[in-house]
Amino acid sequence: MQFISYLINGLGLGSVYAIIALGYTMVYGIAKMLNFAHGDVIMIGAYIAFFAIMNFGLPLIPAVLLAILACTVLGVVIERLAYKPLRQAPSLAVLITAIGVSYFLQNGAQLLWSSSTKVFPAVLPSGSLQIGDLSVSWLTLITIIVCVLVMAVLTLFISRTKTGRAMRACSEDKGAATLMGINVNFIISVTFAIGSGLAAIASVLLCSTYPSVYPTLGSMPGIKAFTAAVFGGIGSIPGAFLGGLLLGIIEILAKAYISTQLSDAIVFAVLIIVLLIKPTGLLGRKLSEKV
Amino acid sequence: MKNQNFMSKAVAAMMAAAMGASLVACAAPAASAPAASSEPAVEAQAEESGSSEAAGGVIKIGGSGPLTGGAAVYGNAVKAAAELAVAEINAKGGQQYELHFEDDAHDPEKAVSAYGALKDWGMQVSLATVTSAPGAAVAPMYQEDHIFAITPSGSSLAVIYQDPDNATGAYGNVFQMCFTDPNQGVASADYLAAHTDLGSKVAVIYKNDDNYSSGIFTKFKAEAEEKGLEIVYEGTFDDSNASDFSVQLTKAQSEGADIVYLPIYYDPASLILTQASQMGYAPTFFGVDGMDGILTLEGFDTSLAEGVYLLTPFSADATDDLTVNFVKNYQDKVGGEIPNQFAADAYDCVYAIAQAVDAAGVTADMSASEICDAITAQFTSMTFNGLTGENVTWAETGEVSKSPKAVVIKDGAYVGVED
Amino acid sequence: MTKDKKGLSALFSAKYRGRTASYTLVILAYIILEVMRASGNLSSLFTSLLVPVTCYIVAAIGLNLNVGISGELNLGQAGFMSIGAFTGICVSGRLAASVPAVPRLILAMIAGALLASLFGFIIGVPVLKLQGDYLAIVTLAFGQIIKSLITNMYLGFDENGFQFSFVENTCKLVPGGKMLLNGPMGATGTQRIATFTVGVILVLVALVIVYNLMYSKSGRAIMAARDNRIAAELIGINISATKMLAFVVSAGLAGAAGAMYGLNYSTLVPNKYDFNTSILILVYVVLGGLGNMTGTIISTVVLVLLPELLRSLQDYRMLIYAIVLIVIMLLTNNEWVRTRIKLLQKSLSGGRKASAGKEDGKEAA
Questions:
Q1: Any idea which of A234-243, B51-60, B117-126, C40-49 has the lowest mean pLDDT?
Q2: Neighbour subunits, B (≥3 Cβ pairs < 8 A)
């Protein structure tokens, strides 16, 4: 029974990782860059939602929408100002710029909103659902449901809409996509917008379960989600979903049954083993290199 | 590849220029540095306002702490409170002080360079560092340079002892305003052993990559074994998983723990309290001085902290004049935030220094080394009354002697507990 | 490949010019700084930065061998520094009573380098099978695992010998014993025996090793493979052994640097060597120019000094640092700025043949 309850907690944690990992993976798939500032967009989202609820007294849904809007704008602005000028530059230059953006957001947040922790209000229903001996908190259930919904909507968007198809085309071959009349710059902006919007959703879920808001809030979930994205095969949307869920479950089970001290080492060891068996992650495609 | 060639050349050119500039820069402050550290800061007197004239110059107090990064909240609290204390003391007219606070980002490396910057500035007395690991890194330098230091909150033994494993080789001129970690661990275990009505099965959740937390835990465990307390579960977390406590709490619950001991700071503690309430687990939570601050956490539902015990030297809710004034002035200064124990300790540090300076007749024209001898002698003999304790004394090792008070949170406020 | 062929004739002058610049820079800087220090003109702040700067330079040179020469993104360099640092501290702590400072420092660095290299080899076997970002994430994972393991290690030493425990500290030392590794608290009470002179010698040794590897036959083969792996494989270049060598050497240099760093502070916590430190070293490398060792040295010095020079900005310090980082990356990759600098260089080099610039660039490629 306890095992199942650990498993559900793992799914809850994994769902948050999965939503963040989706942002990483989409940006990677289309812009071919590791956006290390993604975690910090989550942090900004958390602050926006916090102030919307606490200072402006907005109810949950408008607050979340506001956070999504703010993060989307932020994501696009970052992309335009910091990454777009580097489109032709070596990928490492973009990576370092992303790290610069991450430092900027963290320190900017600290200056604006001080370094002390703020506690995120309990806006999602608390308490738990009792099924026999098993008690599952509503928060965990909501997190899992939101994650599945996001995944479903995103999949539909990518496969059914014109923009979604254009995104896939860009991830396949930017040159050819341009020739087909696709505005690649626009598509990249859309990708950043969606990824950052997802980060805002993730921030509300993350902070509802773990209600601490502080300037470095995003870095650890960011790294974990990045790991999850690679785990599932970076660039693959179902991969990020699967990778996130598995990472959460492994982390919780490792803590529960092996050692709380070593849970991190175990998570990363599993990642290494998976990559050795499947060098492009669980659902990643093997890319054949062209001469 | 051509792009990269070019990029590296361009960068190299810029860098070379920058390096030239920085070489010049690193020589610049040096001109005044040797003079400042060995001789009085004469120029500084002239620059100061008229009030310092009567008192005969300013004494320069330096300090470092994390002003940026993950631990910034502690450094900023200390900085603000120390500034407040200095301003108050200066306003009284007697000996004047000037405070300079540097960022060390909770990193020993940065603490050492911050120490260098402070020395270049002409620091005569020091507030050491806010956190333990940086404090341990700079402590030998205070000894070498013979500068008096008192840390508000660097609680590890390594801050005051050369050999912390055996608690020997005290630096002698580095003092602490807070309890040492072992001290708190022992006090907590003693308290729990004497109050078995709170519960008998103890679970501990501590932060294993943190000096403070594991320092307290190690001593707590040893003392608990001696006193016959039963520890049924030891759970840990670290920086990389400091948000999800579901496993630790589930385990503690299934082991039947009725006391959960939390030798950690208040921000992770708030998460633990929230998650425990979500899963319907309600043991007695017992914290240490790091727990102070939980009631004033912005947005925290204080009903979750109802019934939490903690050992703390300071509570912002106390009604004595000293505390009330301090809390009010601090809030005015920082824009509403309520001071935590770091702030209170820092405030006391500055007042203790001022008391020692006045008693020893130290003047601003004395060198750091002379001041060090004079105040060290005072500190080991004087009694200090401040926010964080009455009749506070210091041992020659630099360890503070004040008793942690057990309080319980009732109706969102601390209530003293009979011993 | 065509580029390489064209460069062959030019290789000799380019080869020596790059090296000479590095060595001269290091030695000149050393002389100037020592003179300034001896005459009391170096501020305490900068004196305290001398040793850590040399450590970061060595770790960055090592990483540049990985990232710049082999073309592998390594996000775990701090892990190797950590292994070296704690090995060095243990060796030095054990020998504290019997060996004088400088030989002890050198022994500690050798031990640190050897153990880090050994781990480099063990980690290199799986890592080098992967490519691109997957390789990067595996190095990141190893960095995290190393940090996590060292955080849980306890090593004590007393008159009865060593005691070791893992996860839970079970070392029971007799009075007078010393905890060399104390889990999350790392090492405390370390004797500070690192010196700037030894640091500079370490930088020079690192340069000799790296340049020799770079310009050996296999070094050129690695670079060929980095530029075009498939083409290199087609002409029969087998690079796995040399890549492994580069990876191991890089780890070893980080280890030696770590040992030096660890012995410069009286305390060191395992958390110091986290992901952020790996990234920091990577920034030094990228900003200095991939494969450009002189650039790496300069960028490391500038980036270590920058936050210190910004101290007067107080709270805004790290914000400005971030902006500077972004602006540098944008400017150095901006077409307009590049053309200007190119023109400037042309007019400056004047007498020199225009081709000279290109040859020099070859080294960086």
A1: B51-60
A2: A, C
Long-range contacts of B186-189 (CB under 8 A, 24+ apart): B186/B219, B186/B220, B186/B223, B187/B311, B187/B403, B187/B404, B188/B216, B188/B220, B188/B261, B188/B263, B188/B286, B188/B288, B188/B311, B189/B219, B189/B220, B189/B223, B189/B224, B189/B226, B189/B227, B189/B229
Task: Give residues with Cβ within 8 angstroms of C104, minimum separation 6.
Answer: C91, C92, C95, C96, C193
Contacting partners of chain A (3+ CB pairs under 8 A): B, C
How far does CA B102 lie from the centroid of its chain? 14
| Domain boundaries defined on chain B | 38-179+323-401, 182-312
Q: What is the separation of C-alpha B223 from the centre of its chain, rounded to a whole number of angstroms?
A: 24
The answer, yes or no, to whether residue C69 has pLDDT greater than 50, is: yes
Chain-wide mean pLDDT for chain C?
Answer: 85
- The mean-pLDDT minimum among A217-221, B212-216, B335-339 falls in B335-339
Q: Which domains does chain A have, with CATH numbers?
A: 2-277 (1.10.3470)
Note the pLDDT of residue B16.
52
What CATH code would you report for B182-312?
A: 3.40.50.2300
Looking at the domain covering C2-364, what would its CATH class be? Answer: mainly alpha
C134-148 residue pLDDT tens: 888 889 999 999 999
Q: What is the mean pLDDT of chain A?
A: 89
Distance CA(C103)–CA(A129), nearest Å, equals 66
B38-179+323-401 CATH fold: Rossmann fold (3.40.50)
Q: Is C232 on the interface with A (CB under 8 A)?
A: no
Closest by Cβ to A119, choosing from B238, B246, B300: B300
- Assign residue B293 a region (left: φ > 0; alpha: ψ between -120 and 50; beta: otherwise): left
Sign of CA dihedral A163, A166, A172, A173: negative
Whether chain A has a CB inside 8 Å of the CB on B167: the answer is no
Return the exposure string of C222-234: e unless at least 16 CB atoms fall within 10 Å of the residue's CB, then b. bbbbbebbeebee
Q: Kindly tell me if the per-residue pLDDT of C310 is higher than 60.
A: yes
- pLDDT for position B32: 38
Prediction pTM value = 0.87
